[in-house]
Design brief:
By secondary structure, the protein is an alpha+beta fold. It has 12 helices and 38 strands. The protein folds into 3 domains: 221 residues, Immunoglobulin-like (Sandwich), CATH 2.60.40; 169 residues, C8orf32 fold; 211 residues, no CATH class. 22% of the residues lie in helices and 38% in strands. The longest helix has 16 residues. This is Transglutaminase-like domain-containing protein. InterPro entries: DUF3857, Papain-like_cys_pep_sf, Transglutaminase-like.
Length: 621
């Protein structure tokens, strides 16, 4: 087992985890087979020395590209050496690599920062199906500065490599505690009064997921090793340093922002300070000083730099909030749509730093690395997870970030005056909130309002002409709903068919249900992330049309979604109210494949399909 990020994780690089697409690939399609034998010594100072023997065999042509070059990154205070690298051809010939085929240089900088990592690349010549590459990796990984405990973790997630053999042996001067989940495919044995631990794969294993959009394999084997299960032992030394930084006077720019915001109500005060940080400090990590580890720059240095990574900006925001009279503490979290349980409260568990603040008696979770901010909104990639909070007394407490409370994110009216040719004069009014408003604000920040307005026109009009968007600047959004007006002509308000016109109501809902039907039909295996619990509602009216059949009311209730279609009585043309409530953030594989969910989909499709109406045009004079 190798720690997935080795010493690089200790720098707290504040990266988000990516999900895995899902649908099982047959084992006989694996492009590469791998055999791994690793031995690691976990040293008293929390550094480690590992020797790993790897053999990778190309099974299919795609494996050639996968293995033609391998890259190994390491910090400048670590050591990495490649030994005995060779290609064994199908006829048994062993071709050692020359020194020209192993190159070490400065590693590329990440997108939002710079560091002093090194990178060793190995190029393997003459590869074909049946070739085996073999090498020995010898590493020394320095301890995270100020760390006193070790924490190693491995996650055996989906990948296009068949694992034929895996053995990882660990030894340490102190007892090794371990925690894991979904480990049926592995044996874990301890000996020597828990000073030695060996992880062994029982049988060859291939787990790769293909051809499924937007799902995640969350139940995968995971094991973590540590010298202590006490979070204070891991984070206590850092908590003391964080509190010392927080106790320092604010630099001039930050102090001026606090003075300007101090008289405002607490929610507005938070918004003002978040906007100050966004305007004056960009998110960029300076990880060249590997001795920093998890310790932020001091406040004056962050202000002098004009940038910082997550821990730098979190400490600055916490200090500013405290100075303004709002209780705020830094917190370590795992950022990503799925955090997983906290098996070991050690340094390898979090990948991000944020702020917990108490605002008008409520707990708010604030991420100053985001470009935009909405008061009281928890970013979706920070909800429903643990948080390790640095308290004033130096304790590191485990808290829980709840899911965002449900809210109405879309409340709109759509009025179309249909013409003889199927076009229509359209007027919309939409109130946005929650994640829809967040996305709008982020789009304005990244692309500009003109690009976002064009996107809105193309979303609400099938073929827009003279579309005009009326809305205030999103930089002032955040308190109350945000209203948008859209006005113009839609040349295809109705779909033309050989027999006349069709009003394609409920198209967005129909796409949603069809995607879930396809999941069941295709035998997919991942869990589906939906986003926040939320409600959307709209009032729709089309004048100048006559439906072939009266629109029927329908309601569907389930643990996952509620939906309602309510026709307006005595309406001329087509007029109805629609409402969709999303009640879950995730749909698990078991839920998606259950009979109950199948019945819900049948009902939801039946209700939604009723909104697709054959109509005749009867424009008023």
């Amino acid at each position: 087992m190798r720690s997935g990020v080795s010493a690089g994780f200790a720098a707290l690089l504040c990266i988000a985890s990516a999900g895995s697409n899902a649908a099982l690939q047959p084992s006989d399609e694996a492009p590469v087979a791998r055999r791994t034998d690793m031995t690691c010594r976990l040293n008293r100072d929390a550094s480690k020395d590992c020797t790993t023997h790897e053999k990778l065999t190309i099974l299919r042509p795609a494996g050639r590209a996968q293995l033609s070059r391998l890259d190994f990154d390491f910090l400048d205070n670590d050591r990495l050496e490649i030994r005995d690298a060779a290609v064994i051809q199908p006829d048994g010939r062993r071709v050692p690599l020359s020194s020209k085929q192993i190159d070490t240089r400065t590693a590329p900088n990440p997108e939002a920062g710079f560091h002093r990592k090194r990178q060793t690349s190995v190029a393997f010549p003459g590869l074909r199906v049946g070739s085996t590459i073999t090498y020995t990796l010898v590493e020394h990984v320095a301890a995270t500065p100020n760390a006193t405990e070790f924490h190693e973790r491995a996650v055996f997630g989906p990948m296009p490599v068949r694992l034929d053999a895996y053995r990882a042996a660990f030894s340490a001067d102190r007892p090794i505690a371990w925690r894991g989940e979904q480990l049926d495919a592995f044996d874990v044995e301890t000996s020597g009064q828990d000073h030695r631990l060996v992880v062994t794969l029982k049988a060859p294993r291939y787990f790769n997921l293909i051809n499924e959009d937007g799902t995640m394999a969350r139940r995968v084997p995971r094991i973590e090793l540590t010298s202590s299960l006490d979070r204070q032992a891991h984070f206590g030394p850092f908590a003391a340093r964080y509190n010392a930084i927080l106790a320092a006077p604010l630099p001039a720019g930050a102090a001026g922002a606090v003075t300007a915001a101090r008289g405002r109500p607490e929610p507005e005060r938070v918004a003002a300070l978040m906007k100050h940080i966004s305007a004056h400090y960009r998110y960029m990590g300076d990880w060249r000083m590997s001795e920093r580890g998890l310790v932020p720059f001091d406040l004056a240095q962050v202000e002098a730099n004009g940038y910082g990574d997550c821990k730098d900006l979190a400490v600055l925001l916490a200090a500013m909030l405290n100075a303004s009279g709002i209780d705020a503490r830094p917190a370590f979290v795992f950022r990503g749509v799925d955090a997983g349980p906290l098996l070991v409260p050690g340094l390898a568990a979090p990948n991000h730093a944020i702020v917990r603040a108490v605002v008008n008696g409520e707990t708010w979770w604030l991420d100053p690395t985001n470009n935009v901010y909405l008061p009281g909104i928890i970013p979706p990639d920070l909800q429903e997870r643990w948080a390790l909070v640095v308290e004033r007394n130096g304790a590191v407490d485990e808290d829980r970030i709840a899911a965002q409370a449900p809210r109405v994110i879309f409340d709109g009216t759509y009025h179309a005056s249909v013409r003889d040719d199927g076009s229509a004069r359209v007027d919309l009014r939409v109130d946005k909130d929650g994640n829809l408003l967040w996305a709008l604000m982020d789009g304005d920040y990244a692309q500009g309002a003109t690009a976002v307005d064009r996107h809105l026109c193309n979303t609400w009009f099938k073929e827009p002409v003279d579309c005009r968007i009326d809305r205030p600047d999103t930089s002032a959004a955040g308190f109350g709903r945000y209203r948008i007006g859209a006005h113009g002509v839609d040349r295809r308000a109705l779909d033309r068919t050989s027999s006349g016109y069709v009003y394609n109501g409920g198209a967005g809902w129909r796409d949603k249900w069809e995607r879930l039907v396809n999941y069941r039909r295709n035998g997919d295996v991942g869990d589906l992330y939906l986003g926040d619990r939320e409600e959307s509602r709209a009032e729709v009216r089309l004048d100048g049309v006559r439906a072939e059949q009266p629109l029927a009311a329908c309601s569907v209730r389930s643990p996952w979604f509620d939906l309602d279609v309510t026709p307006e009585p005595d309406a001329q043309g087509i007029a109805y109210r629609q409402r969709l409530v999303q009640k879950a953030r995730w749909l698990t594989h078991d839920e998606l494949t259950s009979d109950a969910f199948g019945r819900f989909l049948d009902d939801a499709q039946r209700c939604t399909n009723a909104l697709r109406q054959t109509v005749s045009v009867a424009s008023p004079a």
